[in-house]
């Protein structure tokens, strides 16, 4: 396991008007790894990813550290693959020009060299007749080709970290798999780590080395994806997995009782306690801190008692 | 026995492009038929043609034994409430300016089944039926979560007392646990009311779990199922 972290996040807090949305998150991004950030809408996973990129909304206040701060080198050392491929490309410039501009913004190369690099990048992501397609505009690309062009854009400067924010949410199952595979190949080719924000647990299973499960702005569980997905140690992870149709035992699927707390209206103690079948008085008063267990870190007082069946058992018939 | 819905050799064209090419399938009462396939395969065009929201170019759509494609708009009017769509984007399918209560009441009013004594009770019942506290009726769509909004959309569809729901990616935008809750709700409604579902979904795991039968489409044609 590579020991040196490419990026170290320590006690990251992100607040909007005194309401904390990310509440003290610490994790590393290791060289060349795929780290998935998962959790419900509002868990803070996208904000965390945006913080790595230095792309938080202006009214956000942050504390904690992200070292080194790659966001000063955004576009070169750290890049973004956004959810919407169309919005990532300018409609008024040929795709090849946009890629060439991305190269010239960070490297001293001639226009001609930049163009050649752009064509090579489009070719690498499998765009047929790349030299000709480089002169086309985004609207002349199919949806799938646009996704490819965006991946080419995110990897052309050989960054250390690629952040992909729900890159496949709008796509059908087949194209999701294609995009993730291509993203995986490309970031491997340039030696970049990938931070993948997703709520698709199948994508995590198929593509992630490690997974950071977030709940209400905090880490529930962080560890090797294969372990976390097969033997969850945080009750929230167990609930998330139990609700997947892949695990269904009958027609009714287990669900997490209740709803996630609103930021700013958090219960005392563990934020998940009101929804947790294992919660004790301690959980309701003392917020659990991340601690090592079974080759991962988990924030739960009852982690030793968690099994994937937790929510299947409490489910009424 | 006549199936609830019987689609025969359905064709939908947009200009020279054939979006749906001789697609046939039945959906029985109390049964879920999934339509699966990549973007652009013709799933949603099939759904719109079944609902007669886009009149098909050829083929037949038999609903409760009646052929719909030859009916006029006026003749379709009493039939439309019995086949209701539920769409993917829970926010987009409810007017942002109307309270949830009004969105659910609207079909009752349009169909002349509203009166001021029973109407509000009926709306409260429908909200309760989909697992929403009736107090949610006072809220606007943006004050609801994605899952709650999708439940409100289902309540609105139920207001018409449908026999068939055409569900176009109804859970694709939802988080896993919320998605599970909405799928459970749909399963309960089907068990209790005997609804037929035409269930459009690209997630194979959801299809395997939820559907009685599935057909797969590609480039407008049924390729398996």
- The rough form of chain B would be described as globular
Please work out how many helical segments of chain A DSSP would assign: 12
Low confidence ranges of chain A = none
**CA distance, first residue to last residue of chain A:** 44 Å
The largest pleated sheet of chain B is described as: 6 strands, mixed
**Helix-strand topology string of chain A:** EEEHEEHHHHHEHEHEEHHHEEH
SSE order of chain B, as H and E?
A: EEEHEEHEHHHEHEHEE
Largest beta sheet of chain B: what is the strand line-up? 6-7-8-3-9-10
> SS-based structural class of chain B?
alpha/beta
Give me the CATH fold name of the domain at 5-95 and 161-224 in chain B: Rossmann fold
Distance between the termini of chain B: 21 Å
How would you describe this structure in keywords?
heterodimer; A: 317 residues; alpha/beta; Rossmann fold; 2 domains; three-stranded antiparallel beta sheet; 21% strand; B: 225 residues; four-stranded antiparallel beta sheet; 7 helices
Task: Summarize the SSE layout with pairings.
The complex is a heterodimer of chains A (317) and B (225).
Chain A: E1 7-16, E2 19-29, E3 34-38, H1 45-53, E4 60-67, E5 78-81, H2 85-88, H3 95-104, H4 111-124, H5 130-133, H6 143-155, E6 161-165, H7 173-190, E7 193-197, H8 201-207, E8 210-215, E9 218-224, H9 225-230, H10 235-242, H11 281-285, E10 291-293, E11 296-298, H12 310-314
Parallel strand pairs in A: 3-7, 3-8, 5-6, 6-7
Antiparallel strand pairs in A: 1-2, 1-4, 8-9, 9-11, 10-11
Helix pairs in contact in A: 3-4, 4-6, 6-7
Chain B: E1 5-14, E2 17-27, E3 32-36, H1 43-50, E4 58-63, E5 66-67, H2 73-76, E6 83-86, H3 100-110, H4 119-129, H5 146-159, E7 164-168, H6 176-193, E8 196-200, H7 204-210, E9 213-218, E10 221-224
Parallel strand pairs in B: 3-8, 3-9, 6-7, 7-8
Antiparallel strand pairs in B: 1-2, 1-4, 4-5, 9-10
Helix pairs in contact in B: 3-4, 3-5, 4-5, 5-6
């Amino acid at each position: 396991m590579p020991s040196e972290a490419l990026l170290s996040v320590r006690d990251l807090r992100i607040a909007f008007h005194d309401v904390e949305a990310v509440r003290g998150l610490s994790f590393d991004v290791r060289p060349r790894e795929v780290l998935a950030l998962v959790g419900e809408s509002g868990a803070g996973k996208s904000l965390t990813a945006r913080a790595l990129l230095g792309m938080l909304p202006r009214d956000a206040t942050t504390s904690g550290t992200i070292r080194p701060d790659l966001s000063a080198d955004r576009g070169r050392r750290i890049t973004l693959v956004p959810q919407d491929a169309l919005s990532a490309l300018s409609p008024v410039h040929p795709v090849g020009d946009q890629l060439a501009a991305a190269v010239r913004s960070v490297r001293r190369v001639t226009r001609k060299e930049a163009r050649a690099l752009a064509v090579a990048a489009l070719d690498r992501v499998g765009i047929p007749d790349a030299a000709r397609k480089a002169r086309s505009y985004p609207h002349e690309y199919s949806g799938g080709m646009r996704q490819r062009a965006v991946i080419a854009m995110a990897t052309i400067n050989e960054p250390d970290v690629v952040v992909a924010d729900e890159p496949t949410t709008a796509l059908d199952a087949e194209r999701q798999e294609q995009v993730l595979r291509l993203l995986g190949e490309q970031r491997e080719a340039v030696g970049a780590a990938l931070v993948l924000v997703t709520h698709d647990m199948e994508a995590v299973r198929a593509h992630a080395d490690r997974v950071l499960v977030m709940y209400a702005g905090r880490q529930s569980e962080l560890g090797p994806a294969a372990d976390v997905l097969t033997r969850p140690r945080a009750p929230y992870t167990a609930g998330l997995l139990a609700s997947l149709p892949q695990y269904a035992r009958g027609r009714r699927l287990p669900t997490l009782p209740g709803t996630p707390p609103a930021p700013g209206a958090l219960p005392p103690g563990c934020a998940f306690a009101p929804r947790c079948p294992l919660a004790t008085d301690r959980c309701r008063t003392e917020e659990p801190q991340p601690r090592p267990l079974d080759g991962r870190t988990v924030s739960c007082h009852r982690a030793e008692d968690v099994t994937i069946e937790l929510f299947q058992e409490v489910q009424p018939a | 026995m006549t199936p609830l819905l019987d689609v025969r050799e359905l064709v939908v064209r947009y200009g020279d492009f054939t979006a749906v090419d001789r697609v046939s399938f039945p959906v029985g009462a109390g049964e879920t038929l999934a339509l699966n396939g990549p973007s652009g395969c013709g799933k949603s065009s099939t759904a719109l043609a079944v609902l007669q929201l886009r009149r098909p170019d050829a083929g037949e759509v038999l609903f409760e034994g009646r052929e719909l494609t030859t009916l006029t708009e006026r003749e379709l009017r009493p039939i439309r409430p019995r086949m209701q769509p539920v769409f993917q984007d829970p926010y987009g399918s409810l007017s942002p300016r109307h309270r949830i209560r009004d969105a659910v009441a609207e079909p009752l009013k349009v169909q002349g089944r509203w009166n001021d004594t029973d109407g509000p009770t009926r709306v409260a019942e429908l909200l309760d039926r989909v697992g929403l506290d009736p107090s949610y009726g006072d809220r606007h769509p943006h004050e609801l979560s994605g899952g709650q909004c999708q439940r409100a959309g289902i309540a609105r569809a139920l207001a018409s007392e449908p026999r068939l729901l055409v569900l176009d990616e109804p859970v694709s935008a939802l988080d896993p646990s919320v998605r599970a809750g909405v799928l459970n709700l749909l399963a309960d409604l089907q068990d209790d009311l005997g609804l037929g579902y035409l269930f459009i979904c690209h997630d194979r795991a959801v299809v395997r779990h939820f559907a009685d039968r599935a057909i797969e489409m590609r480039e407008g044609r049924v390729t398996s199922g």
